[in-house]
């Protein structure tokens, strides 16, 4: 193939689920991240365990794992996968630690599968939903929170092998 083509569009321009039946099963992994920026006072509530709805980071981790398992129900052309790994990490970031100076929660997700197609969408969905969960649990005190920087960091496996985001 000399030029890249959209795999979810057929020769007539219609959307389709890609046929992966002839592809070999391989071990695949994807790592994604997201960040939810917030007021330093909101971050303090989370870190000190004083958020009214409970343990924000524990809930975000569980929500991210649940989201990874439901990705094909949310994204129409995604294949249902028998996920073998879903890990969600949430790290508080104090004001001034990031280049933009914003306080918040940095989310990193790692998903794995042995199968015929990739797991990038599951890792990205996990990061997105973990950030959304933080928003939901803290919106009563900080409606100005902002979800940002949701992106794929790494994917490995399958025909295309390793891809990593440049620093």
Automatic annotation (TrEMBL):
Gene3D superfamilies xrefs: Molybdopterin cofactor biosynthesis C (MoaC) domain (3.30.70.640)
Catalysed conversion reaction: (8S)-3',8-cyclo-7,8-dihydroguanosine 5'-triphosphate = cyclic pyranopterin phosphate + diphosphate
Gene Ontology MF term list: cyclic pyranopterin monophosphate synthase activity
Annotated substrate binding sites: 77-79, 121-122
Active-site residues annotated for this sequence: 136
Family from the record: Belongs to the MoaC family.
Enzyme class at the top of the EC tree: lyase
This protein's UniProt keywords: Lyase, Molybdenum cofactor biosynthesis
Name of the gene encoding the protein in the UniProt record: moaC
Segments forming domain Molybdopterin cofactor biosynthesis C (MoaC): 17-158
Pathway: Cofactor biosynthesis; molybdopterin biosynthesis
Record's protein name: Cyclic pyranopterin monophosphate synthase
Origin species: Gordonibacter pamelaeae
Subunit and partners: Homohexamer; trimer of dimers.
Enzyme Commission designation: 4.6.1.17
Entry function: Catalyzes the conversion of (8S)-3',8-cyclo-7,8-dihydroguanosine 5'-triphosphate to cyclic pyranopterin monophosphate (cPMP).
GO biological process: Mo-molybdopterin cofactor biosynthetic process
